[in-house]
Every structure is written in C-alpha cells, then in structure tokens.
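Table 4 source record.
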Amino acid sequence: MIDRAGYPGIADDVDLDKVASVLPAMKKRALEMWEEGERLTGHRGLPLAPTPNLAAD
C-alpha cells in the first residue's frame, strides 16, 4: 500500500518482521478497548445517539 501510494523508498524501509511482532499485542489491546466500549455503552458498535461536536462551539 505504501508503495502504491507513491512512497517506494519508505515501503522498502518497512521492517515487516517488526510489524508482525507488534500485531498480536495490538489485536489484544483493540479487543480490550472494544469490550470496554461495550461495557460502558451496553451495546456493540457506535453510540446509539451522535455525540455533540465540541469543536463547533
């Protein structure tokens, strides 16, 4: 993807072994965050009602 985006030099520098070594911990944390969201909201996915845009104030 990085190569196709027009950054072949950066794509060549990506250490795929390092990326692969981080993915299990990233997946574990993402699932923890998902479960915490369910615990806080009582349902899966996005909030039932949109949250106010505080930047618009």
